[in-house]
Amino acid sequence: MMGIVLLGKYCTRETAVDKTGLIYLAETHNIEVYLASGPIFEEVAADEAFQIYYGQVRTELQTFADRSEKLHLLPILATFPADQMENVDHVIFEAAKTYTGLIASAIEEVQK
Questions:
Q1: Beta carbons of 16 and 22 less than 8 angstroms apart
Q2: DSSP H or E stretch at residue 85
Q3: Cα dihedral angle (63, 67, 16, 46), rounded to 10 degrees?
Q4: For 49, which of 4, 40, 55, 56 is 20 to 30 Å away at the CA?
């Protein structure tokens, strides 16, 4: 079995990965959980303040992932140009297909 968790507008790192949340569920129910950043506007991703924030978030999430063989932090930041975005963190349908493919490929790499 596998599960996918997407961090984004409504699911923060605090609610997605806590001491009794995803790690507990993954291990209790023997499922693989994959943490992935949502798609992001390329100009936001290029901003130095965002890069610092993103690095801090990934470091924190990695500490959780390191505590369980069932919890995986995917090494991907999918960025898109303005014409493929609805807003800074939501893509249009065609870009969503691309994003989904990137996530699937990243999961396949983890499973090797």
A1: yes
A2: strand 85-87
A3: 30
A4: 4
Give the model confidence (pLDDT) of 8-45 as tens digits. Answer: 544 555 555 555 578 888 888 999 999 999 999 999 99
- Give pTM, 2 decimals: 0.80
Amino acid in the structure at residue 14:
E
Tell how far CA 15 is from the center of its chain: 13
What are the tokens at 107?
Answer: 């999961």
Amino acid at site 64? F
The burial of 17, by beta-carbon neighbours within 10 Å (0-12 exposed, 13-18 middle, 19 or more buried), is given as buried
pLDDT in tens, 78-99: 999 999 999 988 999 999 999 9
Whole-angstrom Cα distance, residue 18 to residue 9? 17
Q: Which residue has the tokens 């801090």?
A: 56
In contact, 96 and 81? CB cutoff 8 Å: no
| Burial of residue 100, with CB atoms counted within 10 A of its CB: 0-12 exposed, 13-18 middle, 19 or more buried | middle
Q: Which pLDDT score, from 0 to 100, does residue 60 have?
A: 85
